[in-house]
Amino acid sequence: MSGLINDIQRIIGDIQSGKQAIRNKGIEQLDEKLSNCREDLNALLQSKRCDLSWPVLFDVSKEALIKHAGSLEDANEKTFKTLAVKNYLYDNVLEKITKFNLEAGMQSSGNGHFLAKTSIFNAFEEGIKMRVVVKHFGDRIVSLLDRGIYSSATYVRDLKINEYSRILSYLFEVNVERDEVLSTRILKCITKTVTLAKDRVQLHADLVEYLPELKNFANYANGARKLEIVRLYLIFATELSLNYHHQLCIHMQEILPKLCEFHEEDVFRDDTRNLFFQCITKSLHSLYPKLDMCDFNTLGVPLHEKWTQCLLRLKTMVNVEIRKNSLARYKTSQLSNDKFSEPFIKMSALVMYI
Known about the structure:
Helix content is 74%, strand content 0%. By secondary structure, the protein is an all-alpha fold. The longest helix has 24 residues, at 307-330. It comes from Drosophila rhopaloa.
């Protein structure tokens, strides 16, 4: 055990070195220890017989990753290539410590997580605020939140409303330039954040502030982000339909036509299509809250100049869906209402009525 203590103390010293080559050597050795000596390392760090602990190792590794990102940003082209090949080591170490911490929290016979939620949250917060860290290690920083915290029921129960608010502000406002993969990852993390928050805290005031950002996301979405926008918009529309009816309906008139474009491009799977149909139903009921009384009053919400075109577009979409499904079912002589999903039936009835 004393030999391992000496090794870890030496490795930590290397990781904290001001020289990049020594830091790289230290982080590589720590990665090897985490892979090959996990049980012995865990026994040492949990024993409290020395100053070493998992939180110390986590913080040292996080600081090393931040320093490495800074070195990458300052490097010339030749040096950058040399440094970049070591990125995976810094990523690996944080990923393994986070994973071990989650596994420790799931063991009924153990002491629970060895990292405090605040340690992981602070690491996420520190990293997401730094442009160079997001640029080079954005996926790992988001993973601290998405996997490191959201995967633990204990941590989620402990999240406060101001922490949810800060998370949303970071995720909505972070600049990832043209990194499509990271943009998709962040959007999915926003959806997960809002999904977790809506059942635990009141975030309506935050959500309404991000309606313009949601509109921008829809305008520039491609690939998997088109599917995620539908999921996220449905949550926004559901949460804001009462207390923030006016603001929701203003932005909805620009978001919904964009979602219709996604549908026309045939990018939706069946589950997403049903969510899209629910988006339409929720949006129309929000814009016309007295529709059940045959009253088309929007309660002061001005109609966008192209809103009529959107309604006609929805009507066309309903006809196309019915025709497409009818042709497919006709061949088997099984055309009936149960061949159309309930969300579609509700949406189509509402659209045709309006």
